[in-house]
Structure prediction request, 914 residues.
Amino acid sequence: MNQKPLGERLALLTDLYQLTMAACYFDQEMFEEATFSLFIRKYPAQRGYFVAAGLAEALHYLETLRFTAEDLAYLATTGLFNSHFLNYLRGLRFTGKVQALPEGSIFFEDEPILEVSGPIIEAQLAETFIINAVSLQTLIATKASRAVQVAEGRPLVDFSLRRTQGSDAGLKVARASFLVGFLGTSNVLAGKLYGLPIFGTMAHSYITSFPHEIDAFRVFAHNFPTIATLLIDTYDNISGARHAVTVAKEMEARGQRLDFVRLDSGDMAAISKEVRRLLDDHGLNYVRILASGGFDEHKITRVLADGARIDAFAVGTKMGVSEDAPYFDIAYKLVRYADQPVMKLSTGKVTLVDKKQIWRTFDAQGAMGGDIIALRQEAMPEGTSLLQPVMANGRIIRPLPSLRESREYFKDQFARLPAAHRAIQDPTPYPVTLSSGLKELQSRVVQQIRHRELGES
Amino acid sequence: MNQKPLGERLALLTDLYQLTMAACYFDQEMFEEATFSLFIRKYPAQRGYFVAAGLAEALHYLETLRFTAEDLAYLATTGLFNSHFLNYLRGLRFTGKVQALPEGSIFFEDEPILEVSGPIIEAQLAETFIINAVSLQTLIATKASRAVQVAEGRPLVDFSLRRTQGSDAGLKVARASFLVGFLGTSNVLAGKLYGLPIFGTMAHSYITSFPHEIDAFRVFAHNFPTIATLLIDTYDNISGARHAVTVAKEMEARGQRLDFVRLDSGDMAAISKEVRRLLDDHGLNYVRILASGGFDEHKITRVLADGARIDAFAVGTKMGVSEDAPYFDIAYKLVRYADQPVMKLSTGKVTLVDKKQIWRTFDAQGAMGGDIIALRQEAMPEGTSLLQPVMANGRIIRPLPSLRESREYFKDQFARLPAAHRAIQDPTPYPVTLSSGLKELQSRVVQQIRHRELGES
Prediction:
């Protein structure tokens, strides 16, 4: 894209309060280390797990964060900031540390996805972008993984670009859905940027721009014999299927094979059975049926339960905006500052103090058994620790896994999550407990604050 | 941002099928004029109108659309396209026409938001981006206008950036909510790019990083006396309010005035009344109360019905993702090609043929009375035509209205929409009819297609 690095392009993509708070810290010479923890407070309806995604983007942002001369000129026009502070911003870089779950990790309510430690101005400034980036990809990876699960091995392709909430979301949805096992995307730019397989069929407009449907099919088969997918519902599914049969036979005569027919409307189970029969009756058992139109994990489940003969799904809008849960109650909270654990007590929003670690136990078969959220320094001999150091002194410590490696990691981890917790409806809550060290510190800090701020003893 | 123009950066932000279809058209030398119509098929639940937004972005894209050498090199690696076609893409520019609703227009189900006419490859290629761009801003403008309506004049500020679906959405939400009357945004980059007023308060982390809440308040008031908004719920709303009173009195002694206190959790109606009383008891009638935390049109309505003493709302996540309707059933359909009206017959998705115009009638008081969707060339003597020519030969015809002009236009138009159609729950359907010319042509084309494709007589 020949663009400036993310953190330079988007330094101002933040809430104004990040800068006013930073100015206060600067004024008070508050430069001590702060640790912020990113976590999701609550499952949305029907969610029992999350899939971590977006880490690579967050780290790229931190590594390249800087205010350009143009940014500073704009900030000067607001009249809010003095020149000392603006000059400080000019030299600001992120110099801190990050511990994080690798992309593709399974995690749960209240568990930190990542923890950022650094001088408070640097770690605070990054809040808005980090929440935004990690939240979107995690939202979509979680939603898309549910579709992968119920499709039971049938290929899924992301067709959501036109309906995603903006262009950035279009790219990230393609990436996050591939991470959890989608075969690829219709999104060409995502294909280029992330090295994803790209797929395409044809639009109804393509069919209607020809005098006859079959002409449109023939031209497509002629131009793209190796990837031909014929959309058959423009006028009528069955008549469309008959035209596809004719073209498939013509392709056979040329030594080619029609790959797919595509259904896009109507009663998918009934139509797919009829189309399957028609194809089979003509010896076209190898021609597969792709279905699109409002699919997500719920509709895939329904049509398969109805006996649909669908071999692959194009998954669009509802996955691309996470329609039944379009946001997470996600937060980036200060948990430690200047060597003191800190927290807020706001109604219903109490947070877990201090730097943490997640420990996970597995049973003899390798299945996930339960997690403990502990203080970072507590040793939990029976578990596996999940948060890993990924950044120090503002630099990524070692190359991050490739997207394909993360995809394999997700696949392996997801297979270890017992079915009851994976269920797309009424999942059983996965057991997550707090370590005794964390519980003790938590109640001690609550008491200290009540004493200090509210005069309670 | 020092970036390449939108259409150059995002030429590949499209579905692969746009390019495979284009290759077929190129192969067949199909370069005749096509017209595509962009419209929303159905109201989501509880919507009775839409607010048009995103046109400026769509036109900017069309004006600057071009494939870079890097784009073409990537397309070559897919092995799908021959060099003649890639060479054609190298020279491709959008050379067509656009008719559109001005941003800020009120429109309804099935009405075209815009119609694009041009050589079919150019007009088809733009589909994905145009839907994506117009859909998002229209979605948010529509949602945000509902909040503006129920706030009854109280200022609203967009605080959604951290939870929007990606960075592009963060910018567009700030723009679209300002278009319909929000006072401004917390989003600094949106402030810079669109000239929006920016607002900020402080985070809980800011409070918890100080030894005492009141220290945090004092430092903020000292640094930002003209825009001080003190967040009072970190430990306890009432004790926070008492600290704010102390600091407000200290500010008074310096000839300054505390602007706002901010509530962010708990029972907003009850707390706001108590905080109001406390402020008033100390002669701080001028200090206003800002509330944040899960607000959208529904929660604003509820807390005001409960008698909340809230003067301004920070509106975040639920508006920023249009939580109760996170996408539109929006489509960009071929309606005319090579001087012939065209349509598809897919179940439940029949589209209106040919180039169109919307005519609107107003009563003597200027209130909107009803719309007629007509063929472009039909004269409707009593109405006002809504779709305007905005682009010809691939260039914007005359400067588009500024965002502030569009905001005024929206305000004027929205006031003309009778309350029954604006209602945020169970709106009365606004009357939209089809002209006799459109109805006749529609049924004639349906018959022709049934005859031609399905052998019906």
